[in-house]
Design brief:
alpha+beta; 4-stranded antiparallel β-sheet; 2 helices; 4 strands; 41% helix; globular
């Protein structure tokens, strides 16, 4: 089992619109395309919350084929919509984790 984690840092001035996009469009896109275990969390941290908010979107992938599809075409869909809307006001990076239990 793999866990694909995408961490987002969202500046305050675009926060509400970005959150709406992820909740109303991107997560439903994932679930409609077979991603049944999706977690979306706000990261609590001691940093500088006045600068923005940090989120983690985690999707379980049973194998590498599902991961490649998620990281490729499904996340490309997010990028195609979000990049023109938010530019560098939303920064992100992805991490692939492997379950060791």
């Amino acid at each position: 089992m793999y866990l694909y984690n995408i961490s987002f840092f969202v500046e305050h001035d675009v926060h509400d619109r970005w959150l709406e996009l992820v909740r109303d469009k991107f997560i439903p896109l994932l679930t409609a395309n077979g991603c049944s275990r999706v977690r979306f969390c706000r990261v609590l941290r001691d940093g500088h919350p006045s600068e923005g908010a940090t989120y983690a979107l985690m999707v379980e992938c049973p194998g590498m084929e599902e991961y490649r599809r998620l990281a490729g075409e499904l996340f490309d869909e997010y990028r195609t919509v979000a990049q023109p809307l938010f530019g560098d006001r939303v920064q992100w990076f992805a991490t692939l984790l492997k379950d060791v239990q």
